[in-house]
Design brief:
19 helices; 44% helix; 7-stranded parallel beta sheet; alpha/beta; 6-stranded parallel beta sheet; globular
């Protein structure tokens, strides 16, 4: 029985209250263990993954006599990680839950349960790395439970602290400006090495193309814990935005002309409902859309890869409301925004700026119609880049650090002092 089924059966709030009380009582008498636990969704991803890998490289397990452990919300994910020699456990297993509440430190890239139900063990230091700087203002909506659980959270600059604070419901004083550790790989990885990784994951030779464009939109569907679709924010994605077949053919023609590859990486939430449709669609259109391919989260997980090992090999980013563009700024490469449902998305989910001010705020052309979008793609493939100066100015606002040392700062400023203090019994 998984988390969704358990909560659905006995009632989410009743289950969580029971666990909260039990955890508090249990950890009052049982000291913290030697575990540093990690969680992200998708698993083994983002800032948490970057911190985990940095700690592994430092060899802190021996130095501090601790164990690094990944928590996952699906048994299949547990098997995949263990198959890749990563110690993992299924969070709804009683023994795993006990390891979580007794963790010395918990590093969380996203919350394994809705934030209003978030809990931890009494002696656990909770580090919230989060997985993006807000451009949209939905999902968590300032649930103050986060502030009572989280000890420290990460930010990329003074400008981003109030955005993250409002979005996550964590007071500004709890944030530390370290940069996002996931961007270390983004800045450190060579472009050719990244292309080799993409080729390996997708089983095609991407070096044969002159340009690689990545389309990475945010999700439109939000799910109940039982796995059933709950509600839609904006208009559902129809393969590429809301393009019809003729428009996709037109895009593919432009891509062929400039020998460019268009990679689609849907948000992992949307992969649930798009999966069956796209399998059929790909089979039917394989020959027709020669320069358009899909990259899935499952494919990346098999190779222990995440988006931040793919982005260094990408020449142009296409997105909508996803926070990935904030990170991609560090590479100083063109970004195109395809917002076919801007007004409806703003109404459903909210953005930090109104639709009429979106273009003023963003460091790339904002397109709503398919033909406008295709035109911008063609421009950038011709080498026309009219937003280079604005990108650099925006990067200075968002990123205080533009190096590949964010994981080191997290270790030196946050994790190491906590471990030393706990090991000294303070």
């Amino acid at each position: 029985m998984n988390l969704g089924e358990i909560l659905h059966k006995i009632g989410r709030s009743r289950w969580v209250n029971l666990v909260k009380v039990s955890s508090h009582i249990y950890t009052t008498f049982m000291p913290s263990s030697n575990v540093v636990s990690f969680y992200s969704y998708p698993p083994y991803y983002g800032n948490a993954k970057a911190i985990y890998n940095y700690l592994k490289q430092l060899g802190i397990e021996k130095k501090f006599n601790i164990k690094l452990l990944w928590l996952v919300s699906d048994k299949k994910e547990e098997e995949i990680l263990k198959g890749n020699s990563i110690d993992a456990c299924y969070i709804m297993n009683t023994l795993c839950l006990e390891k979580y509440i007794r963790s010395k430190i918990h590093v969380s890239d996203s919350f394994f349960i809705r934030s209003k139900y978030l809990f931890k063990g009494r002696g656990t230091f909770f580090l919230a790395t989060w997985h993006g700087i807000p451009f949209k203002m939905a999902l968590v909506k300032c649930e103050r439970t986060n502030d009572t659980v989280v000890d420290v959270a990460l930010a990329t600059s003074a400008f981003t602290i109030p955005l993250l604070s409002a979005f996550l419901g964590i007071r500004p004083s709890k944030f530390r400006i370290t940069g996002y550790p996931r961007n270390d790989a983004l800045l450190r990885m060579n472009k050719d090495v990244a292309k080799e990784k993409i080729s390996k994951i997708m089983k095609i030779n991407v070096k044969e193309y002159d340009s690689i464009i990545l389309y990475a939109p945010t999700f439109r569907y939000t799910y109940r814990v039982t796995g059933k679709r709950n509600y839609i924010e904006g208009e559902p994605i129809r393969y590429i935005g809301n393009m019809n077949e003729k428009q996709i053919e037109k895009l593919n023609k432009v891509l062929k002309e400039y020998n460019a590859l268009f990679i689609i990486k849907y948000h992992h939430f949307d992969e649930f409902y798009l999966d069956k449709v796209l399998k059929v669609y790909n089979k039917m259109k394989k020959e027709k859309y020669t320069n358009i391919k899909i990259l899935s989260s499952d494919e990346m997980l098999k190779y222990k890869a995440d988006l931040y090992e793919v982005l260094p090999g990408v020449d142009v980013l296409v997105t909508d409301y996803s926070s990935v563009f904030y990170d991609y700024l560090l590479l100083d490469r063109p970004i195109i925004f395809y917002m076919y449902d801007l007004e409806k998305y703003y109404k459903d989910a909210g953005l930090i700026v109104s639709p009429k001010n979106v273009q003023y705020f963003l460091p790339g052309p904002v397109t709503k119609k398919a033909d406008e979008f295709i035109s911008e793609v063609e421009k950038v493939l011709k080498g026309i880049d009219t937003f280079s100066e604005k990108r650099r100015e925006f990067t200075d606002l968002i990123h205080e650090f533009k190096d590949s040392n964010s994981a080191r700062r997290v270790w030196e400023l946050i994790i190491k002092p906590v471990l030393e203090e706990r090991n000294n019994g303070k």
